[in-house]
Amino acid sequence: MSFETAGYQLTPVLPELVLAVGSMALLMLGAYRGQGTTKAVTTLAVVLLIATGVIELLLPAGKLTTFGGSFIVDDFARFLKILALIGSVVTLILSAEFLSDPSRRIFEYSILVLLSTLGMMVLISAGDLISLYLGLELMSLALYVVASSHRDNAKSTEAGLKYFVLGALSSGMLLYGASLIYGFTGTVSFAGIAAAANEPSIGLVFGLVFLLAGLCFKISVVPFHMWTPDVYEGAPTPVTAFFASAPKVAALAVLTRATLTAFPGILSQWQQILVFVAIASMALGAFAAIGQQNIKRLMAYSSIGHMGFALVGLAAGTPEGAQGVLVYIVIYVTMTLGSFAVILAMKRGGQNFENIGDFAGLSRTNPTLAFFFAMLLFSLAGVPPLAGFFAKWYVFAAAIKANLFTLAVIGVLSSVVGAYYYLAIIKVMYFDEPLTKLDPVRVELGAVVTIAGLFNILFFAYPGPLVSMASAAAKSLF
Amino acid sequence: MILPALFFYLFAGVCVASAVMVIASRNPVHSVLYLILAFVNASGLFVLMGAEFLAMILIVVYVGAVAVLFLFVIMMLDVDFVELREGFIEYLPVGVVVGGIFLFELMMTVGAWVIKPGVTKAITAAIPANVSNTEALGLVLYTKYIHYFQLAGLVLLVAMIGAIVLTLRHKANVKRQSIPVQNARTPELAMSVRKVTSGQGLQDADAAEWVQ
Q1: How far apart are CA B30 and CA A68, in angstroms?
Q2: Closest by Cβ to B158, choosing from A66, A67, A115
């Protein structure tokens, strides 16, 4: 039996097929058996995501393409898909408590996370503008819904609506850019665009700007960041953890693939855009976070800054730069998920606390949690020898090799400024008068914090596998 | 040769006139009805161009779904359109100035615009003979573009799930129709004969039974 449809090989899309069919089966299970199945559906969703990851790893090696080149599986795609799947699995694990509340027992939450992950996988593998757009919409549409999944809460509803309206605007810009690019190159496939776009024409650059604007919105970099703090604050915390991890991976992946494989001929054009965006994001991330009192808003500005740092590597436009982006995004995802697990663990008397003042004296009431959170914050600040330092090291090294000295210097300076507010939280935890003890930390939260913390502490001892995998993944783009 | 031109001017004229009426008519329901007329004439123009698939889609989607939805919304919302029109005269001069500048700029730009000869040949694939455009779409939609088609289907699935998640509420104490229960009702269950004492009528205790 040949595994194909309409003459296209289906082997490369096997993980996506399993995920799509599996999530529809779970949808049926939930729809027919009612909201009582929420826990079972969530557990099965985690199993399904892991199965998808395993199938992805078992695919034949090398570069596989199908659907006329609109779907590409190479080392780059495999690397980032596994990362996105890990992000989604951890999100579902972190959501267990949120979903156990009787008023919020919605089994559709897990289904939407699954379908959003499917969108991310399509996005990471996108080989042309149409699959890019469809993957992006599939991912975002599910995100809009989960953002307002706590629908009796005004802030959650506001977050969902704001994200939806601005997301629709960014999709419009992206589509406009894509149509201009199609008009001026005569093709939608990245390879075809690369062949046609040897020299910058005004129309093509115009289209490129709009395409980048649409994608920059999804990774929330300046000047398309306005939605981030409000949405992060308003959405339920597990959902915020999701926003900050897996979708960023997918959007950054497609930004990397689109710029490096579709527009290598006009590198100088998009390089200056990315340099500006990276500088603006790093600076805003560093300065705007200083005054924040709410830890989720602070994490939002932190994520804006970190995306700026990741773009430093992409702006270099070299294999080293792409490798830097990949290492950065892996470390960023672990730091973010670990930090959000700590934020979720901040419960006193069954009530979640989100202000920085609520962390006061955590080192005396919950020393282990405080230690790991301090390590994660040091890592976010980029203090050696933690993982966050190496993440910045790889992107700045690539930028310097590409002669982007100004960018690297501004990046280092803004990371120094940014260290202030991470250190301020550590000061509150270790030197302020302790508040009452937290509720017992749930096992899954403790596990996520511990794994993320240990990864960040011990990364320097054995960075080889991750760096070499990232290097192989980056090379598959060139 | 004269007949297509005649129809073109008929459809185009009605289309433009009804588009003007959409914004000019005072009653919003009339506006939507004129909008439907504009859509129908636009689809007539598509037919003249040989794009019969687009023409039918325009009727089915825009007239059949979107415009009817518009009508529903307008009839359900109690929007005070008179209030919305207030200040029209007041803002007219500014609007005319801005609009005039914009029109002037557009004319300057478009007036200098020269479309490269033969550009339509360069950017479009040759149209095969003996294949209607509905058939041409059908030939590629489920084969060459199966990937996009399925993805679009998944996007719609997410939209459907989202609409249900965000709006469906299972309220307690809501009376629902249950057809088996209705069918199982017999005259004995549904009716009872009472002796009503003259001058007193039905007591409250009797009336309560009827409510259930």
Answers
A1: 48
A2: A115
